[in-house]
What we know:
Elements: H1 2-14, H2 20-24, H3 35-41, H4 46-55, E1 59-63, H5 72-76, H6 81-94, E2 98-101, E3 114-118, H7 123-141, H8 147-164, H9 174-194, H10 196-212, H11 220-260, H12 266-295
Parallel strand pairs: 1-3
Antiparallel strand pairs: 2-3
Helix pairs in contact: 1-11, 4-7, 7-10, 8-9, 9-10, 9-11, 9-12, 10-11, 11-12
Amino acid sequence: MRFLGQILLSLALGYSTLQASTVQSRSFFGKQLDSAILSQALPLSTEELLAYIESQGIRVYFLPLENRNYSKMEAKYLAPPEWILRYRSEYKRDGVLGAYISPILSPSETQIPIILLTDISNRWTILHEFLHVLFEREKTKNKLEDIQKVFERQQASREDFLDLYPKRSDLTRLPSLISTFRDYVLSEIILSKSVSLEEVTIELILLEFVKSGALQNIGTEQIQIAISYAGKNLAAFQSYLNNFKDTSVELEKLLHEAEQTGAPSEKMKQAKVDLNLVHQQLSEIQFELDHIVVKF
């Protein structure tokens, strides 16, 4: 796996060379968060960290995967019985370490951010889920588009694209096909930055805090897990991106063919603009992927 190997090499060559000031100013995939709030959380013990997170207006619940006696701290954060019944089997099956539930999706009537922790959650997991909250708050503060709306647009454009793509030999349908492909690609990139690439971003940020010394008492095994998780998500997204690039090349050839068969119509001209926008967006996200290890 190319990304995983590069990240491992980067760690081996420069594990303790990055300064804390550099870590605090870093940004992956254009994502921003309140580094001051996060910095205060880094030196805290697990118990202190949970209390600090709740002081930020976030509810923390412990979701036991097994029936057993709970520690005093676990009992303090024990999830409501109906939640345990609702989530336990699913999380146990999928090996979930922890989860962030947005206020929009919260099963709680108060609709506050919720972090669910399990028996196998550790301090790293808690910080990971906390970063999800901070990223969402930053999106809300900057009035970015609701991710649910982006998801709905992605699903609709994907469905339209898959309907039109088999008919791509009909060049009269090409402008509509390219238009739906544009919407599909652009919404997918935005969505990925809030889902799979946010997972990558969080792991890389925490790894950089480890490298700077701001985040301590993190074992080698946890570091390797984080590297592997980030690498797998990057590789999966790269594969997805490659499919988009292959399709854009194919559509470009079809568009060229259409232009050769007659005078370009306004629709064909717009299709060319749409396809150029797709190429630009794919190139920009590829540039970020190619340089992420350099920055790391």
